[in-house]
Design brief:
The complex is a heterodimer of chains A (723) and B (329). Chain A has 723 residues and is α/β, with parallel strands linked by helices. Chain A contains 29 helices and 16 strands. Chain A has a 9-stranded parallel sheet with strand order 7-6-5-4-3-11-10-9-8. A 5-stranded parallel sheet of chain A has the order 13-12-14-15-16, with helices on both faces. In chain A, helix 7 crosses helix 21 and helix 7 runs antiparallel to helix 22. In chain B, helix 3 packs across helix 8. Chain B is α/β, with parallel strands linked by helices and 329 residues long. In chain B, strands 4-2-5-1-6-7-8 form a 7-stranded parallel sheet, sandwiched between helices. In chain B, strand 7, helix 11 and strand 8 form a beta-alpha-beta unit. Chain B has a domain of 211 residues: 3-Layer(aba) Sandwich (Rossmann fold). Chain B starts with 7 loop residues before the first helix and ends in an 8-residue tail after the last helix. The chains are: A alpha/beta (723), B alpha/beta (329). At the A-B interface, helix 24, helix 25, strand 13 and helix 26 of A face helix 2, strand 3, helix 6, helix 7 and strand 4 of B. Strand 13 of chain A pairs parallel with strand 3 of chain B, so a sheet runs across the interface.
Chain lengths: 723, 329
């Protein structure tokens, strides 16, 4: 910066300080850096902040693509409105898809239920509460055909969020299209196929890391040969952000995952240009408006640099980062839920300013349940309003050249790069994930953020400030999972009766043998699904060879407690826990458990850490438990309380089963059951009737939960006079 | 001496193999409340008279954090269940923090066992009046009385208490990482003198070669240290399930041999001796520190010694002369 610039800035600072002094504000506080997503934001940026930045000259469609992956951007075609949806049976989801397409949606994005994600058919005993709940149930090619009935798969692109059971699902999609007359070379869309982030944060894996990475490579290889219009991996940061990652962590770990996929594909002998153009990315967009815009710009910059440095691709498309974005699910609140419309709109705007290629906007009732039709319409309309009423598509990269935005873009890229280097120094993402490196950093960031919210330092309107106590309950979509399960089971039976059993057995045997050898497993899965093997049968054949992977839930003792030390509500709750421990001879002991196939464990880990720091003894149950297993652990460990963390709706079936098992085994002396997570209002009564002692909605501060549990325990003890 | 009364209902549940009764009895052992302590003692006294106790092996598994103890127990436990055993696992964490609570993730680290017929009980041991060791013995005795066998005891990490595990179990299995080397030689020399079976874990995939090398190195070191009675070194992969059956054979063979030679019973006697001593010291310390206890009475003598009004030997003698030798525990 020249002398004149420096003098000018000093003068500004003086003026600003004087203004604040007159107003009586603390100058240091008002003009100091503010942390957003771990990035320090200053009050003013000037031309000096652009000095030395190398990316400024490139225009849209030019490396390093900061200003956009295409030259024409939204002038040519606005971003694709692509809503993630799916629930209940294939028919019901199909109706929903047809309606959405009629209402302006441009591409489809399929949510599968957790049974499908985890490779189980709908009739498997482990998935009793999960069928059709958090997505659509798909067991076979027949279900897949019903899902896309009346939709031209040669024209509409289809994105599928599938990782663990990627082989049978993608195979069923290929065969369903083929039988509808669309051969696989014409299919366009995306399969998520990003297993690393499953091990990191989302937990819908099936097999151990090594065979899982082989499957990823098989899919990339198959797609590069047969499906030139299909994205073979959607490298996803979204779930990291949902699990609590900062923007830098999301950026760094996502790109490091990408590098790992490039590496495994290269090890297959595929030239980088044969597959890298079909890698796509998926980011979450939260409420830190400027940081999110800069994140997308920095992601393009970094990916272009990393690929160019390491692989010198000939095809410029290999270095080009194309991205799908989704507004943040965790930023939605169950309290005053209509406020979520505003949150989603602001997030959507950030994604658009960041230059996203497609976008999902959340429905405002998703903090409580699956979206209702009305809420889904508002979510779609949010994008349509942005596209057609605001003029945001008129100009390409409108933030380009902004002192602040360009400087923030460079800073995020720099910090993410340092973290990527750290991952690479650990031998790449497969190794880093196996060692728990990214998980530890993300967990810590999540707990620290929750502590800031619980302390009121980070304001969430309607949750920790500006709260209202006269909220009307809202109606949420309810899936009758028992009916869906019955229908699915009937279909499975019909399928098994009508198919050529010998052909199925032969195809499954070839698949198993191929898994022991080096066959491309997607090719073998296509054969098996075509012969009408079920998703569960294909997964089981592979499981025989690879085994089913189990990963431990980890808590981080001490992290929450340190962040809230000295807070009055925290000390009050610690004293209550201590008093209970003295009275009972041991601290309150709680089992934190997840029921069913829902692998979202951020809430469970957070509450486990918080309660342990408050003085509870906390048992963490295994992921993917049945009610019998949870009851067994609760009784063996003789806990006072069982806390069920639920995100995916299986609680209506599984929690009543659990309370009944506990009652049968221990009578009134058994543990109390409490629930936390996403529980729609109309389930409350049913759960309370089933014996659930308390329901904690998302956003309830840890000290409130801890104090309430102790209160309930003391009341129960006083009532029973038990020891 | 007022003998604590036996809770008949709980006891009959335990001997009938009722998991709920066993679970509640172990909670009594974990409790810091005096009345719970008395009830626990009565149950442990009764259980100690059970003939099953002498035949139920207690096997300790130890090793540095992250070596895969839980994973091995998960796999070994499956093997035992299939072979008709009914194992119990006590996961003891003596490092649990004294303030605040504990995070116990054992069931998530042993997911298959937690689902099967085994009894798995992770315990924070901070509350126990006699220390982690006494708690473990009490809980192990109750598990045996309830018909669970063998009792596997997992202790976290290898630290200053590394040889104490010797006083708790009939057989010590030490787990090491492939590539464990020099740091182990120094750090665990004490433990290497007590270990009965050494296992190199994670012997699979790219680590198999390193694991074999580690086995050879430790077998050599143990021969030097312990001569012809040196324990064997096994290779296992919990991931692939290899070496598990062989490991159990080695353990059983050693236990059989010791039962026949009388070494098994001798070791149990030694354990009870150590338990007695530790228990006595703990009880005396408690009595000294109790309200109205000795510490209050000697406070002025300590101050007198501090200010030179009495010489230190004189002050000590004055305390001892005032003892009645009937401390109330």
């Amino acid at each position: 910066m020249n002398d004149r610039g420096r003098a000018q800035e000093r003068a500004w600072l003086e003026r600003a300080s004087k203004e604040l002094a007159r107003a009586g504000d603390e100058t240091a506080d008002a003009l100091g850096p503010r942390l957003r997503q771990g990035v320090a934001i200053r009050p003013l940026y000037t031309a000096a902040d652009l000095e030395g930045l190398e990316h400024l000259d490139a225009l849209p469609g030019e490396p390093p693509y900061v200003r956009g992956p295409r030259a024409s951007m939204y002038r040519g075609r606005p971003w694709t409105l692509r809503q993630y949806a799916g629930f209940s049976t294939a028919e019901e989801s199909n109706e929903f898809f047809l309606r959405a397409l009629a209402e302006g949606q441009r591409g489809l994005s399929v949510a599968f239920d957790l049974a499908t994600h985890r490779g189980y058919d709908s009739d498997h005993p482990r998935v009793a509460g999960d069928v059709g709940k958090a997505g659509v149930a798909v067991d076979s090619v027949e279900d897949m055909k019903r899902l896309f009935q009346g939709i031209d798969l040669g024209a509409v692109s289809v994105s599928m969020t599938m990782n663990g059971a990627v082989l049978p699902v993608l195979a069923a999609f290929i065969v369903a299209a083929e039988e509808a007359g669309v051969e696989q070379g014409r299919l366009s869309g995306t399969i998520q196929n990003d297993i690393l982030k499953e091990f990191m944060v989302r937990n819908t894996y099936i097999y151990p890391p090594a065979p899982s990475m082989r499957i990823v490579a098989d899919v990339i290889e198959y797609a590069s040969e047969h499906m030139p219009r299909f994205n073979s991996v959607s490298i996803s940061g979204y779930h990291m952000q949902e699990a609590g990652a900062t923007a830098v962590q999301e950026l760094a770990f996502t790109l490091a995952d990408g590098l790992e996929y490039v590496r495994v594909a290269r090890e297959r002998g595929l030239p980088v240009d044969a597959f890298a153009p079909r890698l796509s990315f998926f980011f979450g967009i939260g409420m830190s408006f400027f940081v999110e815009i800069a994140k997308l710009r920095a992601a393009r910059l970094l990916w272009s640099e990393l690929l160019t440095e390491r692989y010198q691709p000939q095809d410029p498309r290999s270095c080009l980062l194309r991205v799908h974005c989704q507004t943040s699910g965790v930023s939605l609140t169950a309290q005053q839920p209509l406020n979520n419309v505003v949150r989603t709109a602001v997030e959507a705007l950030a994604a658009v300013f960041g230059g996203t290629q497609s976008l999902h906007t959340n429905a405002w009732d998703e903090a409580i349940a699956l979206p209702s039709d009305a809420a889904a319409r508002v979510a779609r309309a949010t994008q349509l309003v942005l596209q057609h009423e605001t003029g945001v598509t008129d100009v390409i990269d409108p933030w380009g050249g902004s002192y602040f935005m360009e400087s923030l873009t460079a800073e995020l890229a720099r910090e993410a790069r340092a973290l990527i280097d750290e991952v690479e120094a650990r031998g790449g993402m497969t190794q880093a994930v196996a060692a728990g490196f990214p998980q530890g950093l993300i967990d810590r960031a999540a707990i620290e953020r929750q502590a800031r919210v619980d302390r009121g330092e980070e304001i969430v309107v309607g949750v920790n400030r500006f709260t209202a106590d006269d909220e009307a309950p809202l109606e949420a979509r309810v899936v009758d999972d028992e009916r869906v399960r019955r229908e699915q089971i009937a279909r499975l039976e019909a399928l098994r009766r009508s198919r050529d059993e010998e052909a199925v057995r032969g195809a499954l045997a070839r698949l198993e043998a191929g898994a022991r050898g080096h066959d491309n497993l997607l090719a073998s899965s296509v054969e098996a699904m075509r012969a009408r093997a079920t998703l569960g049968e294909v997964s089981a054949a592979l499981e025989k060879v690879f085994g089913r992977y189990e990963q431990a839930l980890r808590g981080l003792a001490g992290v929450y407690g340190r962040s809230v030390q000295g807070e009055q509500s925290w000390e009050t709750c610690q004293r209550a826990v201590q008093a209970f421990a003295e009275r009972e001879g041991r601290p309150p002991r709680i089992l934190i458990a997840k029921l069913g196939q829902d692998g979202h464990d951020r809430g469970a880990k957070l509450i486990a850490t918080g309660l342990a720091d408050a003085g509870f003894d906390v048992d963490l149950g295994p992921l993917f438990s049945t009610p019998e297993e949870v009851a067994r652990i609760a009784l063996d460990n003789d806990v006072h309380v069982v806390g069920i963390s639920t995100q995916a709706g299986a609680h209506t079936t599984l929690v009543p089963e659990l309370t009944q098992l506990l009652r049968e085994a221990a009578g009134s002396a058994g543990p109390l059951v409490v629930c936390g997570g996403i529980v729609p209002q109309e389930h409350h009564e049913q759960l309370v009737e089933a014996g659930v002692a308390a329901l904690f909605e998302p956003g309830t501060p840890v000290p409130v939960i801890a104090a309430r549990i102790v209160e309930l325990l003391v009341a129960a003890r006083d009532r029973d006079g038990s020891t | 001496m007022d003998r604590p009364e036996l809770d008949d209902e709980l006891w009959s549940g335990i001997v009938a193999g009722d998991r709920r009764a066993l679970a509640r009895a172990i909670s009594l052992c974990e409790s810091a409340r005096a009345d719970h302590r008395l009830r626990a003692e009565a149950l442990v006294a009764r259980a100690s008279a059970e003939p099953r106790l002498a035949t139920t092996a207690r096997i300790g598994l130890t090793g540095p954090a992250g070596v895969g103890k839980s994973t091995l127990i998960d796999t070994l436990g499956q093997h035992l269940l299939q072979a008709g055993h009914r194992p119990a696992v006590l996961a003891v964490d003596p490092s649990s923090r004294r303030t605040g609570g504990s995070l116990l993730g054992d069931q998530t680290r042993m997911p298959r066992l937690a689902r099967g017929d085994a009894f798995v009980r992770p315990s924070p041991t901070r509350g126990h009046l006699g220390g982690a060791g006494a708690y473990t013995l009490e809980a192990a005795i109750l598990c045996a009385a309830a018909g669970f066998e063998p009792v596997l005891i997992e202790t976290v990490g290898v630290g200053q208490n590394e040889t104490e595990i010797d006083d708790l179990v009939d057989l010590v299995v030490l787990l090491l990482q492939p590539g464990a080397g020099d740091e182990v030689q120094g750090m665990k020399r004490g433990l290497l003198e007590h270990v009965d079976v050494l296992v190199v874990a994670k012997a699979d995939g790219p680590l198999l070669g390193v694991a074999e090398e580690t086995r050879a190195r430790f077998a050599g070191a143990l021969r030097l240290l312990r001569g012809p009675t040196a324990p064997s070194v096994a290779l296992v992969s919990a991931q692939e399930g290899t070496g598990i059956a062989e490991l159990w054979q080695v353990i059983e063979a050693q236990l059989d041999e010791r039962r026949q030679s009388g070494a098994f019973a001798e070791r149990r006697a030694r354990q009870r001796r150590a338990w007695f001593r530790n228990g006595l010291v703990a009880a005396l310390t408690r009595a000294v520190d109790a309200p109205g206890g000795l510490r209050e009475r000697w406070a002025h003598l300590e101050e007198a010694a501090a200010h030179g009004e009495l010489s230190v030997p004189e002050a000590v003698r004055a305390v001892l002369e005032g003892l009645s030798w009937s401390p109330r525990v």
